[in-house]
């Protein structure tokens, strides 16, 4: 992988190990929702969005290795063909508008069923919601559907200023833009730290 290097992995892995806050009583739950739609492949030559997505998924799997007692995670895919494509189920660690939003709602509902200290859902996407007729307001509602779940979007691709425009319409602090894989560990650390500080 072109820009996936040891220092990037080490920064994220270190963030996983250094958790702030009160002693953990239960596992933390994380659902990583990955865009596997055709646009990820189609526009990869423009901005490497598919490569960044694969690098981020590898980074998450490697960072959580040997931390099964602290974190329980799964990796789901979403595309025009489905919204609940199990890429990495939590028990096996290492085309329309409604379906596009349903993956986020599904991940939030499912993750909240488990008993955990904290719940996280992180969506990796190329911000190409306009193509599927999804208004930013509906995406924002999906992010906020359950107050006990910390849901975020990381946009890893953009046609023009698409990601910037979408980010401006979403709730503050709930979306990030990472056009370089090296930015993802810092974003994930910011997500985990901000939620832990707000709950203390």
From TrEMBL:
InterPro entries, per database record: VWA8, vWFA_dom_sf
Any one of the GO CC terms: cytoplasm
SUPFAM superfamilies: vWA-like
Protein name: von Willebrand factor A domain-containing protein 8
Originating organism: Ophiophagus hannah (King cobra)
């Amino acid at each position: 992988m072109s820009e996936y290097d040891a220092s990037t992995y080490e920064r994220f892995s270190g963030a996983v190990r250094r958790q702030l806050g009160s002693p953990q009583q239960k596992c933390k739950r994380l659902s990583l929702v990955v865009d596997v739609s055709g646009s990820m492949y189609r526009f990869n030559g423009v901005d490497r969005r598919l490569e960044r997505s694969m690098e981020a998924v590898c980074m998450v799997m490697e960072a959580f290795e040997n931390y099964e007692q602290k974190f329980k995670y799964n990796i789901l895919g979403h595309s025009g063909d489905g919204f609940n494509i199990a890429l990495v189920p939590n028990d096996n660690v290492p085309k329309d508008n409604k379906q596009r939003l349903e993956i986020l709602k599904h991940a939030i509902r499912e993750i909240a069923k488990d008993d955990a200290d904290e719940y996280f859902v992180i969506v990796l996407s190329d911000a190409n919601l306009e193509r599927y007729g999804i208004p930013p307001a509906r995406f924002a509602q999906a992010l906020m559907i359950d107050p006990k779940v910390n849901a975020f979007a990381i946009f890893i691709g953009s046609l023009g200023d698409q990601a910037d425009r979408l980010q401006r319409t979403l709730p503050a602090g709930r979306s990030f833009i990472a056009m370089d894989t090296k930015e993802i560990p810092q974003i994930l650390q910011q997500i985990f730290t901000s939620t832990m500080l707000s709950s203390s």
